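Try this one yourself first.
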């Protein structure tokens, strides 16, 4: 069973709406939950994406699959790294906000900066592809 683009977009918007609602309630002081619980919708969506990404990567690695998909496999590997960087940022941010760690904000934001730098590089590579003559 495959979800259409509209269904995936709707699911993403609903999860984002729930997360932003919880975030506003927490910042307003009306919600006394842990920061880890506030970020739960984000982590549920990330877990689903991680599972889907790993299944697709495993499908490409099976024997007999065309070798022309090596570029696609590298792109999926980058998506996996990006997802893990985003997860590391969310965990570090929640730990800092909850007071579990005394990490400097520079170290908390480091995974986010690496993620954004990688996204810019991927965008640049897709806009200006390397031509081999």
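Now uncover the answer:
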């Amino acid at each position: 069973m495959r979800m259409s683009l509209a269904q995936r977009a709707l699911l993403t918007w609903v999860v984002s709406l729930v997360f932003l609602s919880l975030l506003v309630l927490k910042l307003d002081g009306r919600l006394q939950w842990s920061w880890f619980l506030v970020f739960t919708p984000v982590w549920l969506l990330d877990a689903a994406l991680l599972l889907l990404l790993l299944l697709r990567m495993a499908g490409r690695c099976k024997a007999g699959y065309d070798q022309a998909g090596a570029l696609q496999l590298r792109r999926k590997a980058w998506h996996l790294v990006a997802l893990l960087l985003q997860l590391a940022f969310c965990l570090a941010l929640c730990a800092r906000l909850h007071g579990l760690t005394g990490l400097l904000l520079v170290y908390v934001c480091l995974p986010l900066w690496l993620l954004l730098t990688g996204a810019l590089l991927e965008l640049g590579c897709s806009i200006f592809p390397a031509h081999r003559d």
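Discussion: Residues 49 and 55 are 10 Å apart (CA to CA). The mean pLDDT is 85.
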